[in-house]
Amino acid sequence: MIRVLVTDDEPLIRAGIRMILSSAEDIEVVAEAGNGREAVEVARTRHIDVVLLDIQMPVMDGLTALAELGRVAPRVQVLILTTFGERQNVLRALSGGSAGFVLKDSAPAELLRAVRAAAAGEAYLSPGATRHVVDSLVSGGTARRGERARRRLEKLTDREREVLALLGEGLSNADAGRRIHMSEATVKTYVSRILAKLECENRVQAALLARDAGLGM
Fold it and tell me: What is the rounded average pLDDT of the residues 24-42?
């Protein structure tokens, strides 16, 4: 059972998300929070697998809460709830260790996929907004960022670079394994090794690094 904490300062949004998640047999909403400070306290004291976290909230905003969650509950996966207008904040959240993001107006099936992916330790980038994020990543400072990324990738083996390229495409462990004829468990081992070598906190950071380096593109 995937235990979820829903964090948003609007009760109606929390209620809607709870209703969607409660329709799944493998997901349980165990708590709600109206601001980042409440979310951090709940995650610190209770067993939570995935936190759905709004960015714009009173008392403590989502980006500050994300950093605190990384400190007090490092095993918790955080999915950012966002809108198109918060693109730059999304970039900061991904760099800060978020497992990904999902748009608030996403279809129920997409929200369920996002939670399941995060719980499995995989990245989830909402298809409806990924293009906008990528456009931001490739604008301004691209050459310097690309050069830094390529230098970091020099420590990887050819096989590790191949797996990283698939992460950059957003593939799950299972899909990546099918692509390169490798078991899902073996891909998971490679991913752990890649994260350690690149000093990335999660798959999202590694995927962004792969894109910066132009790997697989």
Answer: 96
For 58-94, give one letter per residue: b (16+ CB within 10 A) or e: eebbbbebbebbeeebeebbbbbbbeeebeebbeebb
Mean pLDDT across the stretch 123-140? 62
Residue 67 or residue 105, greater confidence:
67
Tokens representing 26? 């493998």
Under the banding of pLDDT at 50, 70 and 90, the label for residue 125 is confident
10 Å Cβ neighbour count for 96? 19
| Selection from 38, 132, 43 nearest residue 94 by Cα | 132
Beta strands in the chain (DSSP E): 2-7, 27-33, 50-54, 77-82, 100-103, 124-125
Contact partners, residue 32, CB within 8 Å, separation at least 6 = 5, 6, 7, 14, 18
Q: Which of 50, 45, 10 is nearest to 29 (CA)?
A: 50
